[in-house]
Specification:
By secondary structure, the chain is of the alpha/beta class. About 30% of the residues lie in helices and about 25% in strands. It folds into two domains: about 40-150 and about 280-345, FAD/NAD(P)-binding domain, CATH 3.50.50.60; about 155-275, FAD/NAD(P)-binding domain. The protein has helices at about 1-35, 45-60, 95-105, 155-160, 170, 190-195, 215-225, 325-345, and strands at about 40-45, 65, 80, 90, 110, 115-120, 125-130, 135-145, 145-150, 165, 180-185, 205, 230, 235-245, 250-260, 265-270, 270-275, 280, 310-315. Strands 1, 2, 5, 6, 7, 8 and 19 form a seven-stranded mixed sheet that branches. Strands 10-17-11-12-13 form a five-stranded parallel sheet, covered by helices on one side. A three-stranded antiparallel sheet has the order 14-15-16. Strand 12, helix 7 and strand 13 form a beta-alpha-beta unit. Bound molecules: NADP nicotinamide-adenine-dinucleotide phosphate. NADP nicotinamide-adenine-dinucleotide phosphate binds near residues 81 and 190.
């Protein structure tokens, strides 16, 4: 009887050890399940995204990057960049972005030409879905989705979009060789676009809704000195006028409204370039990440951390103030370092 009890105790001991081991295994497995397929996912491919990729790749974190609907970001539609350090004679936007891409690829960043259309940051691992439906999981996500050109929002603008209306002189200026164009806006973008268009168009008219300019002095002066550029101040576009022959649309002019007198005059032109600022590309994060009224992501002071642990934001998606390529690159670097330090807290 005693022998039987000893054997029973031994058996019970072994069973409880086995159950404890199973519990431990299940726990460690469930911890593993909480980790993502990737350590770092970067959404966006402007200077912020590429810099984040460069730093995380060089930290052996094997980042993957989603280039989005405008690979290379806004600089792809910028002509000469004279204020990015390191280029004595300036550099074209597309060349700079291509160089950044090659640099991150050299350190093993995996880039996908896909757009992230859905995210779930409610639990770990963090989940994102691409436009082809593929799910990706990660321990950290760096949001570098940038901002996009804004439009004035009138019906005729939509109607002639791509048929005379554009927000990118570098992309479309060539199509207006020897023709008349207008540029809307009073900031640096408008100045840059107006100047660039004088290489193609026969006449450029800058339309601005007030007399003061947001543009930097040097860029405004360049435009003022350019004999091919005329100014229509205190003026807005009331309507874009054109023809539509069975879907073959073209712009013939704009109805301009003087904001002081209300007077409307017709101004003939073939091209209309919008250069009135940008909107952050953060719709996919609505209700998930904290953002301001315009849509700029809110990050913690002196950091790129968002309200979700493990999710960091950099570049124009979170910067309504500086919005420069070099500041975007700077915050991209910060987000990579923030992500690396966060991963260390997970036991990397
Ligand atoms: P911005 O500085 O915000 O200027 C936007 C302009 O569009 C303003 O003049 C604004 O008028 C006007 N505007 C806004 N909404 C309008 C509407 N609905 N109808 C008519 N006009 C409207 O934007 P940005 O020019 O794109 O420049 C953004 C940032 O990028 C700036 O920091 C700029 O310095 C920088 N940037 C630098 C370079 C360069 O250095 N190469 C080139 C481009 C941009 P109000 O002034 O009346 O508000």
């Amino acid at each position: 009887m005693l022998g039987y009890l000893v054997i029973l105790n031994l058996f019970q001991d072994q069973m409880s050890q086995h159950i404890n081991l199973q519990r431990k295994l299940t726990m460690s497995q469930s911890i593993k399940v909480l980790r993502g397929q990737h350590k770092v996912i970067i959404i966006g491919s402007g200077p912020a995204g590429f810099t984040a990729a460069l730093y995380t790749a060089r930290a052996n974190l094997s980042p993957i990057m989603f280039e989005g609907s405008q690979p290379g970001g806004q600089l792809m539609i910028t002509t000469d960049i004279e204020n990015y350090p390191g280029f004595e004679n300036g550099i074209s936007g597309p060349v700079l972005m291509d160089t950044m891409r090659k640099q991150v690829q050299r350190f093993g960043t995996q880039a996908y030409y896909k757009t992230i259309t859905r995210v779930d940051f409610t639990s770990k691992p963090l989940k994102v879905w691409a436009d082809d439906g593929t799910e990706y999981t990660s321990d950290t996500v760096i949001v570098a989705t940038g901002a996009s050109a804004k439009y004035i929002g009138i019906e005729s603008e939509k109607k002639f979009m791509g048929f005379g209306v554009s927000a990118c002189a570098t992309c479309d200026g060539f199509f207006f060789r020897g023709q008349r164009v207008v540029v809307v806006g009073g900031g640096d973008t408008a100045m840059e676009e107006a100047n660039y268009l004088t290489h193609h168009a026969s006449e450029v008219t800058l339309i601005h809704r007030r007399e003061g300019f947001r543009a930097s002095k040097i860029m405004l002066e360049r435009v003022q000195k350019n004999e091919k550029i005329k100014f229509a101040l205190n003026t807005v576009i009331d309507e874009i006028v054109g023809t539509d022959e069975g879907g073959r649309k073209s712009v013939t002019g704009v109805n301009l409204k003087n904001v002081n007198t209300g007077e409307i005059t017709f101004h003939p032109c073939e091209g209309v370039f919008m250069a009135i600022g940008h909107q952050p590309n953060t719709d996919v994060f609505k209700g998930v990440l904290d953002m301001d009224g315009v849509g700029y992501l809110i990050t913690k002071k002196s950091s790129t951390a968002t309200n979700i642990p493990g999710v960091f934001a950099c570049g124009d998606a979170q910067d309504s103030y500086y919005r420069q390529a070099v500041t975007a690159a700077g915050t991209g670097c910060m987000s990579a370092i923030d992500a690396e330090r966060y991963l260390e807290t997970l036991g990397e």
